[in-house]
Design goal:
Layout: H1 2-17, E1 22-25, E2 36-43, E3 49-56, E4 63-64, E5 68-71, E6 77-83, E7 91-99, E8 104-106, E9 110-113, E10 126-134, E11 139-146, E12 152-159, E13 166-167, E14 171-174, E15 180-186, E16 194-203, E17 207-210, E18 214-217, E19 224-228, E20 232-235, E21 240-249, E22 253-261, E23 264-274, E24 278-286, H2 288-297, E25 299-308, E26 313-322
Parallel strand pairs: 20-26
Antiparallel strand pairs: 1-2, 2-6, 3-4, 3-5, 3-7, 7-8, 7-9, 10-11, 11-15, 12-13, 12-14, 12-16, 16-17, 16-18, 19-21, 21-24, 22-23, 22-25, 23-24, 25-26
């Protein structure tokens, strides 16, 4: 019995040691016209920790090295990474970012200047961060990029703080002169969690543009409940009616709604939105079949199906009542 008690104390002791990591940005070394070595110190705090370096020509950074494990020790560990494709004669900013299950920490900003003669300035692309569509453990983030006539790539940075710490795979935005819509899918996100994200566009000669920081919130089991109160819906002379829906929880409800009778669609609503902890009428317009049936009957029952973006489906029966005959005659 004594041995068993002693064995169980080990994991408990290890768990109690887990803490947020510490991250200290070091001095940049081995600087040339186009290369440099970024250095830092990371203490994992007793919990599995990953780190990356962010760097760029401003404190928006824009570039990020790949995530690398720093282990789960409790002492300072020196880390470094070589970065290349830098622009000669240019000042750069850099910092370390370390993350574990407890928190994300960033080191102080440091600057260094590459050797050589800087090139003539080039036009920078324009990056605009757009909206996001979320699910329980993922999201699709959107934006626009104007390459300004030069070959441009883009990616999205994301993380639980404005330090981000993660990024999507770079994709081509082309070399046009007008804004193009871009998007990326984020997967493996934590449920019931707020994430920061932004769009980054990179043109030739290290011309980097960053979009504004925005946030999204993932859903989760029990976090947001879509409710349906649409037993009766009055319909006007144009076949426009409304179904009362409620959205209870941490994130807004977004999705589609369909009305059916005898297996045939009589009305659809694409892209409704109800903000979190709110409710209201979601309007829906009958199609030609729906208008014809309502014109013949005066009222009719339809099966209402409401889909939420996080995968919830709510169905029920709604009684449509025509309250005006204008426009539905003949």
């Amino acid at each position: 019995m004594t041995a068993a008690l002693f064995a169980s104390a080990g994991p408990l002791a290890a768990t109690s040691l887990a803490a947020a990591p510490t991250a200290t940005t070091g001095t940049t070394t081995s600087i040339t016209d186009t290369r440099a070595t970024l250095n830092a110190t990371v203490n994992p705090g007793g919990e599995e920790t990953s780190y990356s370096f962010q760097y760029g020509t401003t404190t928006d950074y824009g570039r990020q090295t790949r995530l690398t494990s720093a282990g789960n020790g409790t002492t300072d560990r020196p880390v470094n990474v070589d970065v290349d494709e830098l622009t000669p004669g240019t000042e750069y900013h850099a910092r370390i970012v370390a993350s574990n299950g407890t928190d994300t920490r960033t080191g102080a900003d440091v600057t260094f200047r590459t050797t050589g003669t800087p090139p003539a300035p080039a036009p920078k692309p324009i990056a605009t961060t757009g909206s996001a569509v979320t699910s329980i453990s993922g999201a699709t983030v959107n934006g626009t990029v104007n390459p300004q006539g030069r070959a441009t790539t883009y990616y999205f940075q994301f993380g639980e703080t404005a330090a981000y710490g993660n990024q999507t795979a770079p994709q081509s935005a082309g070399a046009g002169t007008t804004p193009v819509s871009v998007s990326a899918a984020l997967s493996g996100l934590r449920t019931d969690t707020t994430y920061h994200y932004r769009l980054v566009a990179i043109g030739p000669g290290d011309a980097i543009a960053t979009g504004e920081d925005r946030t999204l919130a993932t859903g989760g089991a029990g976090s947001t409940i879509l409710s349906f109160f649409g037993q009766t819906a009055f319909t006007d002379q144009n076949g426009v009616g409304g179904v009362f829906l409620g959205c209870f929880g941490a994130v807004s409800c977004r999705g589609d709604m369909t009305l059916e009778r005898s297996g045939k669609v009589v009305g659809e609503r694409k892209g409704y939105t109800i903000r979190q902890n709110f409710g209201g009428i979601v309007h829906i317009t009958l199609n030609d079949l729906g208008k014809r049936l309502l014109r013949q009957r005066g009222n009719m029952s339809v099966r209402t199906t409401v889909l939420n973006a996080n995968g919830q489906r709510v169905t029920g029966v709604t009684k449509l009542i025509r309250y005006s005959t204008n426009g539905l005659k003949g």
